[in-house]
Fold:
Amino acid sequence: MSLPQILIEGFAKLPVLTNASICSGKTYIVTGGNSGLGLETARHFVRCSAARVIITVRSMEAGENAKKDIEHSTGRKGVIEVWYLDLASFVSVKAFVEKATSELDRIDTLIENAGVQLDRWEETEGMEMSMNVNVTSTMLLGLLMLPKLQETARRFETETKLVFVTSALGFVAEKELRKSGDVGIFKSLNDPKCADMGQRYSLSFIFTLISKANFTTRYALTKLVQMYAIREFATSYPVDQTGVVVNMIAPGLCSTGLGRDTSTTTRAIVGGLRAIFARTAEEGSRTILHGVVAGKESHGKLLSGCKIKEYV
Structure:
């Protein structure tokens, strides 16, 4: 899938695929739920009669503001809860899982939406920040939460969901991934000398970005590695054995705060593309809802534009 295809798909009209009959009585967790796609996804769940909706945040103040916004727009109080989670920290991930598994009676869906886009080198937990947050900690959270999702599926005789929010940009980062070789790829992925953090811009680069999708920023690479990890995860834990559907959705280019920590140049380029091609955050959240309602046929698959789409 090329970048032009990704951008053009943003003009497709998307349905809202949740309602009270689907969400009533259920508990949802949305990581990165204080803004953008996470905020709008959580709003849909509250509007559709979910019993509990937990949004995870790094800033409790931002989370409380998001909670007030959702309660005001939906007219429902006592549903949204704000929990702290920092995916840059393994300790935080483990603490969150311990709290969730001990305090929640059920978890019907975990939506792994939180992620970062950086164009400078930073490290956490001994690895590059965006690779850690978007891949390692994201997969760790899914793995540690799987037993609770399985327990919910078994106790309530339902299918639970583990939905990862990824990006179709990963498909244009294959050349960058090949630099890492075939064995021990994380060694090179966490080598600043090998990393293309996406800061080399020129008029010719921007033209190539749009026309040929030579988009090798770190964010795209993390999403490609993430997709491979999710496919392996789904293969290792078949839905027929766990009762948990594991899928991934590509929401397309959306007007969100993703990339707010990048350089002025990066924000200007992405901002220009968003002005022309981006969906609103609410429209993008509809693709996440599709991942929530999709059945066994979506296990291990990529969903885009509210359809199952396999591009590799």
